[in-house]
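Handoff note, outgoing to incoming analyst
You'll be picking up this chain. Sequence as last confirmed:
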Amino acid sequence: MLLRTENLTKDYDSFRALDALDLTLGPGEVFGLLGPNGSGKTTALRLIMGFLRPTAGAAWVDGHHCWDDGVAARRRVAYLPGELRLYENMTGRQLIRFLCELRGQKVWPDLADLARRFDIDLDRPIAHLSSGMKRKVALLQVLVPHAALLIMDEPTNTLDPSMRDELLDQVARARDRGQAVLFSSHVLSEVERVCDRVGILQRGRLVHLQRMADLREGRLIHARFHGPPPALPSLDGLHERQRQDGAVTLEYTGPLAALLEWLARQPLADLRLEPLGLASIYHRYHGAVA
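Most recent structure output, in case you need it:
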């Protein structure tokens, strides 16, 4: 495994910001940490980067302990923090080259293509750039080195929709190259689009781990009947979500034909099917959907 955490915990006096996080991430995998502000996402990433010392537990990157052997661990990582602090006396190109050399990695020739895709002039001093342009420079310094592990904290913040799409495309390309990507987000659509697995954090604890391939096979069924809704059949993967006024909303992850066969025998007034998505799972833990 490229990344491994065991019982990773961080306390601030009596407040537990992260509680016993167990996580693994292999090459060619995208993992999303999902949760609202204050759920522990940023704390987890900072512990993995070795910027914080854990209260208990540990994390390893490519076998290197993130605290005791932090320099070696960070050489294998390209990191985008949530709050940027760039060397503004440099140009974007100088900064990317400097950070690549600092990690012992080369600047790959796709830098020019990436700069074009993100519509940024790398030869302007960073001090002269807008906050959005600075964010793009920071994204390039994560993407260009082709590091084994990319760690991004809310990477799409301040990006317009087209640039957000471009970044998610680049994350998918990094996965296809065999890189691992770990990023935090509270935007469900981003996570659904690119992640192979998702972890939902609630008050510092990992409360749900989800393979997206399994979730994409699921369906949300909205059925309205002539008269009261009938009793549900005994089908594995079928769960009732809501029932009122002659209508029922169901979650289903089993073979669709079996459910449709049952529905065809019922006095249906209306039927609508849609992908299950992360919203229903997120809603279980955090109420309002992000």
